[in-house]
Write a structure and sequence with these properties.
The complex is a heterodimer of chains A (471) and B (183).
Chain A (H helix, E strand, L loop, with lengths): L1 H14 L28 E6 L6 E7 L4 H5 L6 H11 L5 E16 L4 E16 L2 H9 L9 E2 L5 E16 L4 E18 L3 E8 L7 E15 L10 H15 L1 E13 L4 E15 L3 E12 L2 E2 L13 H12 L2 E4 L3 E4 L3 E13 L17 E12 L6 E11 L4 E9 L6 E10 L2 E7 L13 E13 L3
Antiparallel strand pairs in A: 1-3, 1-22, 2-3, 2-22, 3-4, 4-6, 5-8, 6-7, 7-9, 7-10, 8-9, 9-12, 10-11, 11-15, 11-16, 12-14, 16-17, 17-18, 18-19, 19-20, 20-21, 21-22
Chain B lengths: L1 H18 L14 E2 L2 E5 L1 E6 L4 E2 L4 E2 L2 E7 L6 H6 E12 L5 E8 L5 E9 L8 E10 L1 H6 L4 E8 L9 E12 L1 E2 L1
Antiparallel strand pairs in B: 1-13, 2-12, 3-12, 4-5, 6-11, 7-10, 7-12, 8-9, 8-11
Classes of the chains: A mainly beta (471), B alpha+beta (183).
Amino acid sequence: MKNLIVSLFLFWVFSALSQNKQVLYGLEEVPQSMLLNPGSRIDYKYHFGIPFLSQIHFNGGSSGVSAYDIFQDTDGDINTRIRDKIFELKNTDFFTATEQLDIFNFGWKNKKGIYFSGGVYQEFDFVLYFPRDLAILGWEGNQNYIGKEFDLGEVSTTGELLTVYHFGINKKVSKKLTLGLRAKIYSSMLSFRSTNNKGTFVTRLSETNNNIYEHIVSNANFTVNTAGIASLEGMDNTSQIRNELIGRAFFGGNIGLGVDIGGTYEINELWTASASVLDLGAVFYTKDIESYQVKGGYTLDGIELLFPGFGEGESPPYYDDLINEIEDSFPIDTLNSSYTKIRPVKMNASIKYNFGKSIGGSGVCNCLKMGENQEFNQAVGFQYYGMFRPKGPQMAATLFYYRRFSDHFSAKATYTVDSYSYYNLGLGFVANFNVVNFYIMLDNLQWYSNIAKAKSVSLQLGFNIIIPEDE
Amino acid sequence: MKKNFFLFFSIVIASLFFSACIKDTDFDQTDDIEITPALELDFVFFTLDANRFYDIDAGEYNLVVSDTTDFTFLNDEFTSENLLRAEFLFKSTNSLPVDFISKIDFLNASYEVFYTIQFPVNSGTINNPTITEFIQVIEGNDMELLTQADKVIVSINASTSVENLEGVYKFQSKTAYYLKVGL
């Protein structure tokens, strides 16, 4: 049981991926902000996301290296740059790709003031930690590292393609507090994971004096879990694979359950706080599972020739025997047992200070909201975003400035410090033309003149139809 | 005023969106990427005493013993394409009072010899064994020959009979492989 809990925790912390959407968080004009905080304030009556266009999100990044670092068009040698980067990167550096596509999204407010919202989105997550020791060994070889133990357990990667069906409720429970809850069903199409691996490799001067060196792999323990991949291997063409994946998107794959919770608290008319916890849940892998486990250890000191005496018969097949012995020392077990993967839990929190002109009414006071906190056209604030990772938590801190220019236009600018950099500038813009709501959000703006220098890039945009309360 | 703000932000977003580009980079450099690891790997080892030279069938001691092993690593496609240079180190520790010639032949399955390394080993005593180190560097055309081989024969040729002699001939070896792997 203890092992199970530890395993589940490790799965959970490892599954965390880069999904910070610091510009969108708290931007209540955009219905998709409810996916970041189901307890955000909603002042419209209905919304419908334009199918496939209501949220397109892409994030690709690496915490320690940009394309420019390697491919810069300067006089230096690319091989020297790669070598320098291999040594500069840490085993906690990572490469990620995240993609999210809203298939559809809708919501309505009932007579009791409860806002119901639901929809379907598709998501792809991938993370690969930099296996520094293996990279050094591969790039340099072992010649300059006699006696150094290379950590083979740095190999850590996970990826998932899934569809999420969600339905949430949101209610302003008092004049100051809005709470929300969202239930999710995950339908996993593909999943792989190789984490918590172990093992070392060393080449050292022989201690037995059999030969000159000993090449030792110790306590190797590697596991790769896959779900939804083994059955695709037998398929010949892409249309077969596509049809199979589409089937899995509609509950044909491995199923999971989860919830998002969140709330917004208007402390007074100037200060507002909010927080959310997303993806508290798990996917239960029971179908099309194939896991591979390799355990073992071996010491290689070359081929020992026995020189069988004359008349004692032929020599044994030394080389084949050696290869067989090595293979036997690392047996590969193929397992089909079910497993559970905790979804990556994300946390958001913010505090903001409102100022400027009051929205609506005379510009000094919105008399329709007497007794409730006023809304202002500007705000500054701080946001926190966090996820646990196996090699340390991933966190981001954001300072933001929000400005609503009119009923039609608003914008938010962010400055974020995260795992990728200490100076990530973001900008989001929301426009409402009658009932059409459009938004676009970008980050790492300082690199847009040359994206090659950015260690991560993130883009979100979408269209919605929003019907205000009074229509 | 509002229009100006809208105009300003529209221009900022539009210019960012449309001006975003990748520059000052040259992705053709991918062709220049070369991984050049240097690998140290044990080769063959053995220990011979006088009994290994005895021929049971003939009832006498021979001057030469040999043994053969496959070594398909050398003519593996990856090795033959990417191996630039190989440095063999042979370390002999001889406590037999006999000189030897050690010979390593690299050959194919038809026993066609492509490359031979040969070196002398001086006699020693049990109390004072002779240690001989011999290094052979193989590159260029010789490397093309070496990488056609998938078998190794090691022959130890004694200068005089080892009959009834005390001591052992200990043979250790390793190779440094210098690879150059392009993408």
